């Protein structure tokens, strides 16, 4: 019925696309949907690697049955218990009552907690192996990439890394399943948006996993979201290495919250001064219009940030407050920060933004520029000076 998609003669892609869900984790916009990837290894024993979100289970089961016919599944490997992957565990167990669920010591209590399953469980630890026949699975713990129980599974004969959320991205697989079957550049940005917002808080655990992966010969990275990677392996490993170290490139994110345009005008003046100094990558965002996940993703890319906010009821504009709270929650490091603010009777926005930068130990460039009422000559000049200072900082890092 289905023309199965193969990673090798006996490894099959059985993932599904979700084009209906608006918000991943009920938070993150999905303008081009999301894929939940799952895989089957068919050998003397059959292993299913992860499942899919419960709303997609019917499509998923059709694919699984299409690959296996009446052959049973011996093992279900759970790399990650978040319900976008483990949501169909109970249904799979109903179809395959003798299936053995494979997880680590942190996975199995979650299996019991979510599904009340207490039998046919196999606990694996770091480096443990399961032989399927000519295929051998080996397990490596990857705590906090993205949950504490997360692990990755390496298949030795075809050198496939089933990586869970790691190296995943938003976006459905629209015909092309492998990275070389599509315009992969779209997924660069969506992989970074996924990483920065979902996993970005856990840079150190990601570094530990990358160290482990250095010892593996990886020909295919089969994540639970987004394209299967076989032609850009070094590139995505490098991207993860940079993001998890908070390494950035030359450029500026200018994000503002403006009610009647005065803060926006200050942001425009500052951005123009930055551009006049030769900085080419400047991304300007109205935080009331662009979802914070896109802004945060670009902050993971670019070294400098300018934040501007009007004062609202003695606090930051609520949409700017939401952005900085998310940045604090993630613990984003190593940025330059320029601060802009405006107010009508009592200014506090610039003070709050400066405190935010100090809390994250970002280097604050010059003094905050804060204007009362409309932008006038003195503060206009200060915005330009701030822009020039930010550009000079960036240019000093060249070479
Ligand atoms: Fe794709 Fe952390 O789940």
Report the C-alpha radius of gyration, rounded.
24 Å
**Helix-strand makeup class:** alpha/beta
Low-confidence stretches: none
Largest sheet: 7 strands, mixed
Care to count the β-strands? 23
What is the count of DSSP helices, taking H or I runs of 4+ residues?
12
Beta fraction: 15-25%
Share of helix, binned = 25-40%
Ligand kinds: MU-OXO-diiron
Q: What is the average of the pLDDT values? A: 97
Distance between the termini: 57 Å
Q: Which strand order spans the largest sheet, edge to edge or round the barrel?
A: 1-2-7-8-9-10-11
> Which term fits the overall shape?
elongated
Commentary on this structure:
With 399 residues, the chain is an alpha/beta fold. The chain is built from twelve helices and 23 strands. It has a seven-stranded mixed sheet, covered by helices on one side. Strands 17, 18, 19, 20, 21, 22 and 23 form a seven-stranded mixed sheet that branches. The radius of gyration is 24 Å and the shape is elongated. MU-OXO-diiron binds next to α2.
In terms of topology, how is this protein built?
Layout: E1 5-8, E2 11-13, E3 16-18, E4 23-24, E5 28-29, E6 34-36, E7 39-42, E8 46-49, H1 57-68, E9 75-77, H2 83-86, H3 89-95, E10 100-103, H4 107-115, E11 121-123, E12 129-131, E13 136-141, E14 151-155, E15 160-164, H5 185-199, H6 203-213, E16 220-223, H7 233-244, E17 249-257, H8 262-276, E18 282-286, H9 292-301, E19 302-312, E20 315-316, H10 318-330, E21 336-343, H11 349-359, E22 363-364, E23 369-372, H12 377-396
Parallel strand pairs: 8-9, 9-10, 10-11, 15-16, 17-18, 17-19, 19-21, 21-22, 21-23
Antiparallel strand pairs: 1-2, 2-7, 3-6, 4-5, 7-8, 12-13, 13-14, 14-15, 19-20
Helix pairs in contact: 5-9, 6-7, 8-12
